Amino acid sequence: MTAANPTSWQETWTARAPERHWLLLCGFAVSVGFLLIFGAQRSVERLIEARDLLPLALYVPSLIVVHLTLVAVRFRGDQLLVAAVALLSGLGILMHYRLGAFAADTLAGALRQYALYPACMGAMLLVTLAAMRGRYRHLAASPWLWALVSLGLLAALVVTGQRYRGAIYAAGFLTPSEFLKLSVVLYLAAFIAARAAALGAWRYGVLPPARALLPLVAVWLVLCALLLWQRDLGMVAILNVVLLLLLTLGSGRIGYFLLGLAVAVGGSLILLRFFSHSARRIDAWLNPFTDPTGASWQLLQGLSGMYSGGLWGQGFGAGNPEYIPIAASDFVYAVVGEELGFFGSVLVVLFFLLLFQRGFAIALRCRGLFARLLAAGLTAVLAVQTFLNIGGVTKLIPLTGLTLPFISQGGSSLLASLMAVGLLLAISDGEPKGRGRTKRRKA
Description:
two-stranded antiparallel ribbon; globular; 2 domains; disordered C terminus; 2 strands; mainly alpha
């Protein structure tokens, strides 16, 4: 859903009425969620203080600022995308508050912690404003710059990071590798768009063009080696799926996907021999009751919580997420299942599907190959990450340790995800198809 090329802010205000209505519903839904949590807290005689209202007091104005800014700059891009992100992010704030992820003793301390959300929404807005009106095309000028940024991020993390629970974090437990979801997609989109013809020229129809692929393969091997050294197999999985998707879309050759699938299966079997923690996760997935209080403890507690939620859930604030280890991070979906039930969990998945549908629809409408690949790649990153998280929590696939976009705790993940949405919004605004239908008022 996009605005119809308004030329004044009054026309934009009218054209973006659906977005305004959806954002009002988001604000109402999140407010009801907070009331339910406050009610549960009052039932255990906990007093509601001013700092308890702070998350909601920051969330609602953030939505208002985003909407009014888009109206003021006569933004013509997608409206449902903004609403889907607003609701998912609002659910994330609810979960963080519910799980005490940002517990603070004073109002000032709470303000510093909850300021993360409006700051990330502001970053999304800045990216949109900077890249809209087709300015995102400048990002295709230097694909090697994005490759260097990606490798530099990982190299700096390897040199200066500290290992904790098997992963490597930067100072302050930041995860700069989250921004690979932007820089690597920008590199792939720019590289493939500039060499699409050469990449599509397979010898005899069965052999990929080695010379055209060589620079990409060299960068990719170094990138994957650095990620594997950090034991970040989840990020390796996400980026390789996006690589195959973009190569297939950019070259028009399905062979890239089939060849990559075969390499991925063979590579996974080899990696399992060298990464014992991944082998343990697969064993816990296949045989969860072999070690129910050890390797399978988190998975079984999450499944138990979702089962206790039933169809309608126990209600916000009425569950027992304290029994699920690290619930605020990669197992937040289990808390959703316990407190909102099966229907609430399905509703969350539907909003994710709406987000992905809008992202891929934006990609399909793009006439330029770079824009199409960039929109498809950014959407695919979010979609694959969501599938790996929810699939792991529900025991559909082995656990990967990845967070759930927009909802799990993690400032770097939230910032990178919202910046990706900012780029998607900018691409939706710069569609060439819409520019030819600009209506001008008569003087």
